[in-house]
C-alpha cells in the first residue's frame, strides 16, 4: 500500500471512531450533578447584606449527615477531614444550629437542607417584628407602639432569613437524589465506633458565588462604573408591578387630584418570601388575602353596574410588601407627586385584606390605628367602616370584632398610607395579636397550611371544581368584604344582601394559586402569548427582579375577567381599539384571552376583554430618587450571579493526591527528556537510504 493510500486509511479510521465510538467525559465519570436544588441567595439593603454565597470557584466539603444538635461536634471540632458539607433534615434547620455553624465557618464548607413532604409543627425564618423600620410607627409617631413594643406579631420568627452566611446553603427535595447522597455518606463517610472513616470519602461541591457585596449603595455605585462596552451589573432592585382596577374607569393619562371624587381603596398584597430563593408559596401570608379580594371584586361586578355607588372603589394588589412595603410605598409616592390617577386627598378610606384563612373559632379581627383615630373625623369614618363590616356578616356564621386592647396595626400596606397622612382604614385579619400562621414567610406556608385537601380519587380537572372547606370559608369572607365595600362607597342598602361571592371561583383560584396554575380555567383567562407561564405547580411569590412575574400577570388577567366585560372585538381590533368609536385605551385595558375549548372542538373560543385594570410600577422610590441609603423607602436589591450548581463526588486522601501529582510530574519530565533526546537524534533515528538514480544508456 502506498503512502497516499495509508494516509486515507488513517483518516477514514479516525472519522469512523469519532462518529461511532461513544465515550463520556472525565467530568461525567467523576461528578454526579444534583438537579433538584434551590440556593439561598444574597440580598442587600441600605446598611446590610443578608443571605448566603460560595467562593468564586465553589465550596467543597466532605459530607456529614447531621442526626442531632449534639452531632455538631463532629463537623465543628472532632472530625479529622474538614471542611464539612453538612446535610441536615428540616427539623434541625434551626437558628441555634445554623449560628453555631456560622461561627465555625472555617470548618463548614456549606449546608444542604432536606425539605420533607410534610411540615414541622412550626417554622418561620422571618423576624419577630416584620418591616418594623418602614411602617408608620416610629419615635415620632406612636413611639410606645413602635418596634412591636406592645404586640409581637411573629413570635415564632427566628430571623434566619436576615442573617448573613459566608458559606452556601442549598435546599434538597426529599427524593431519589437525596437518598443517593445519604447512601454515599453511609458507604464512605460514616464513622464506625468513633474511628475516622477511610478514603475515598464522599464530598459535595456547591456553587453560588454572588457578585454584590456590602450593601445597596455599594452595589449600585458599582453598577454605574462602566469600564467596558458591556458593563457587568452586580445587583438589581427588587420590584415588579402593582395591579389595580376600579369599578368606574379613570383616564390613565390624567394624573393628580380629581375634584368631587371620593374613593374607597380595597387592598391586598401579592408577594411572599422564604429562606431559599423562589420557593415561597405564601398560602396564608398572601394568597388567602388576594384571593378573597378578587372574589369580592367579582361579587361587586353586577351590583355596581346596576346601582353604582356614589364613591368609586379601587382594588389594589401590591407587590414587594415583604421587603419594606415596596408596592404600597410606590403608589403613595406616585399619589403625592401627581403620578397616579388620584391623589391621597381623594381617598375616603382603606380596607386591607390580610391573613384571613386560619381563623380559629368564629371571629375575624378588625385592626385600626389608635394614633390616627385620635382625630375625630378619622375616627368617625373608621367607626362607620367597622359598622359596615360587622353588619355584613348576617347569616354567615362568624363575627368581626375589634381587638380588646389598644394596639398598633399589624404589618400592612395601610401603614404606608398613614405615613403620608391620616387616612381612615381597617386591616381585616384572622389574628387578634400574634399571627395564627405558624409558617410565616417560609416554604411551609403552602396548600397544606390552609388544609386545602382533595379526595384521592379526583382527577386534576375534578379537583379544580371541588369546593373545599377552605374555599367555602374564604367565600364567606369575600362576601362580607364585598358588602362592606359597597356600603362604604354609598351603595344602595336594599341591594346589599344580593351581593354574594361565588365559591366555585374561589375554589378555582385556590387550586390555581396553590396547587397547579396550568389548569383549564387559568388557561382560558390568559393571553395566548402568556400560556407558557402556567406550570403544573403553584407560582412563586417572591417579588424578584424580573418585572411582571407570574402572580402579577395572573392577578391582572383574573381581575380583568372577573370585573370587566367580554366584547365582540376581533383580535386586531382588540390590539388597536382606539381606531373604533366608543373604545378608548385611555379609559380601559383591552386583553385578548384564549377562552375555553367548546365541546366537540379543538379550537379555543378566544375573545377580547375590556376592563379598567392597570399595571403600575412597584419599584421603590429610593431607586427613582437615587437615594440608595434611604431611611424612608425600601432599598432592597438582589445580587447577580454567574450560575448555581451542586454536585457530589468521591475525594481521595491527601497522600494519594500528592502521590498522583508526583507521578504526573515525573511522567511529564520523563516525556520532556525523551522528546528532547529524540529531537536531537532525529537525523539518525529517522534517516532513510535513497536508491541511486537509474543510469541512462
From TrEMBL:
Q: Which UniProt keywords apply?
A: Glycoprotein, Membrane, Notch signaling pathway, Signal, Transmembrane, Transmembrane helix
> What residue range is the signal peptide?
1-23
Where is the protein localized? Membrane
What residue intervals traverse the membrane? Answer: 658-678
- Give the bilayer topology: Single-pass type I membrane protein
Q: Which GO terms describe its biological process?
A: Notch receptor processing; Notch signaling pathway; protein processing
Q: Which domain of life is it from?
A: Eukaryota
| Predominant location category | membrane
Indicate yes or no for the key word ATP-binding: no
GO cellular component terms, semicolon-separated:
plasma membrane
Pfam families on file: Ncstrn_small, Nicastrin
Q: Does the keyword Membrane apply?
A: yes
Name under which the protein is recorded: Nicastrin
Entry similarity comment: Belongs to the nicastrin family.
Amino acid at each position: 500500500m502506498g503512502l497516499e493510500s495509508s494516509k486515507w486509511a488513517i483518516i477514514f479510521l479516525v472519522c469512523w471512531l469519532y462518529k461511532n465510538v461513544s465515550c463520556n467525559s472525565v467530568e461525567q465519570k467523576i461528578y454526579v450533578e444534583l438537579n433538584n436544588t434551590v440556593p439561598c441567595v444574597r440580598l442587600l439593603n441600605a446598611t446590610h447584606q443578608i443571605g448566603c454565597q460560595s467562593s468564586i470557584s465553589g465550596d467543597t466539603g466532605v459530607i456529614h449527615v447531621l442526626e442531632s444538635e449534639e452531632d455538631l461536634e463532629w463537623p465543628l471540632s472532632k472530625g479529622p477531614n474538614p471542611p464539612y458539607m453538612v446535610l441536615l433534615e428540616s427539623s434541625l434547620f434551626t437558628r441555634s444550629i445554623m449560628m453555631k455553624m456560622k461561627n465555625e465557618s472555617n470548618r463548614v464548607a456549606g449546608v444542604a437542607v432536606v425539605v420533607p413532604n410534610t411540615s414541622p409543627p412550626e417554622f418561620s425564618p422571618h423576624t419577630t417584628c416584620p418591616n418594623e423600620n418602614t411602617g408608620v410607627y416610629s419615635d415620632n409617631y406612636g413611639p410606645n407602639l413602635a418596634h412591636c413594643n406592645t404586640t409581637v406579631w411573629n413570635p415564632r420568627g427566628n430571623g434566619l432569613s436576615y442573617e448573613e452566611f459566608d458559606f452556601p446553603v442549598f435546599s434538597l427535595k426529599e427524593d431519589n437524589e437525596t437518598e443517593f447522597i445519604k447512601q454515599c455518606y453511609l458507604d464512605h463517610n460514616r464513622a464506625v465506633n468513633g474511628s475516622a472513616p477511610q478514603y475515598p470519602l464522599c464530598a459535595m461541591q456547591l456553587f453560588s458565588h454572588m457578585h454584590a457585596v456590602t450593601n445597596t449603595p455599594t452595589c449600585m455605585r458599582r453598577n454605574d462604573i462602566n469600564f467596558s462596552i458591556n458593563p457587568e451589573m452586580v445587583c438589581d432592585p427588587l420590584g415588579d408591578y402593582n395591579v389595580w382596577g376600579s369599578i368606574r374607569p379613570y383616564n390613565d393619562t390624567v394624573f393628580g387630584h380629581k375634584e368631587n371624587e371620593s374613593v374607597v381603596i380595597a387592598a391586598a398584597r401579592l408577594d411572599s418570601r422564604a429562606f431559599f430563593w423562589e420557593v415561597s408559596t405564601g398560602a396564608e401570608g398572601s394568597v388567602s388575602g388576594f384571593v378573597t379580594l378578587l372574589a369580592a371584586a367579582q361579587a361587586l361586578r353586577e351590583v355596581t353596574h346596576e346601582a353604582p355607588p356614589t364613591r368609586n372603589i379601587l382594588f389594589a394588589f401590591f407587590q414587594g410588601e415583604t421587603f419594606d412595603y415596596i408596592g404600597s410605598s410606590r403608589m403613595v409616592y406616585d399619589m403625592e407627586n401627581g403620578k397616579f390617577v388620584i391623589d391621597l386627598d381623594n381617598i375616603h378610606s382603606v380596607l386591607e385584606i390580610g391573613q384571613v384563612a386560619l381563623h380559629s373559632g368564629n371571629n375575624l379581627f378588625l385592626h385600626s390605628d389608635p394614633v390616627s383615630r385620635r382625630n375625630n373625623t378619622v375616627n368617625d369614618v373608621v367607626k362607620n367602616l367597622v359598622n359596615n363590616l360587622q353588619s355584613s356578616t348576617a347569616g354567615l356564621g362568624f363575627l368581626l370584632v375589634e381587638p380588646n386592647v389598644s394596639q398598633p396595626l399589624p404589618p400592612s400596606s395601610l401603614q404606608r398610607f398613614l405615613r403620608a397622612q391620616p387616612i381612615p382604614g381597617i386591616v381585616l385579619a384572622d389574628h387578634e395579636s400574634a399571627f395564627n400562621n405558624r409558617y410565616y414567610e417560609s416554604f411551609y406556608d403552602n396548600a397544606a397550611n390552609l388544609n386545602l385537601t382533595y379526595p384521592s380519587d379526583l382527577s386534576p380537572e375534578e379537583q379544580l371544581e371541588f369546593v373545599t372547606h377552605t374555599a367555602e370559608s374564604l367565600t364567606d369572607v369575600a362576601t362580607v368584604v364585598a358588602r362592606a365595600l359597597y356600603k362604604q362607597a354609598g351603595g344602595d342598602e336594599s341591594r346589599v344582601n344580593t351581593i354574594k361571592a361565588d365559591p366555585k371561583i374561589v375554589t378555582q383560584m385556590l387550586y390555581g394559586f396553590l396547587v397547579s396554575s396550568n389548569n383549564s380555567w387559568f388557561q382560558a383567562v390568559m393571553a395566548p402569548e402568556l400560556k407558557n407561564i402556567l406550570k403544573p405547580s403553584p407560582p412563586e411569590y417572591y417579588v424578584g427582579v424580573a418585572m411582571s412575574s407570574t402572580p402579577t400577570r395572573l392577578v391582572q388577567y383574573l381581575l380583568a375577567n372577573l370585573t370587566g366585560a367580554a366584547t365582540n372585538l376581533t383580535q386586531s381590533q382588540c390590539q388597536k381599539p382606539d381606531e373604533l368609536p366608543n373604545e378608548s385605551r385611555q379609559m380601559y385595558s383591552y386583553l385578548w384571552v384564549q377562552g375555553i375549548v367548546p365541546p366537540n372542538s379543538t379550537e379555543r373560543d378566544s375573545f377580547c376583554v375590556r376592563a379598567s385594570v392597570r399595571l403600575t410600577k412597584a419599584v421603590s422610590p429610593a431607586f427613582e430618587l437615587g437615594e440608595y441609603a434611604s431611611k424612608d423607602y425600601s432599598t432592597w436589591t438582589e445580587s447577580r450571579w454567574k450560575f448555581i450548581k451542586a454536585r457530589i463526588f468521591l475525594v481521595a486522601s491527601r497522600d494519594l493526591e500528592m502521590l498522583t501529582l508526583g507521578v504526573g510530574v515525573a511522567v511529564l519530565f520523563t516525556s520532556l527528556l525523551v522528546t528532547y533526546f529524540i529531537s536531537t537524534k532525529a537525523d539518525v533515528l529517522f534517516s532513510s537510504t535513497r536508491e541511486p538514480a537509474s543510469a541512462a544508456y
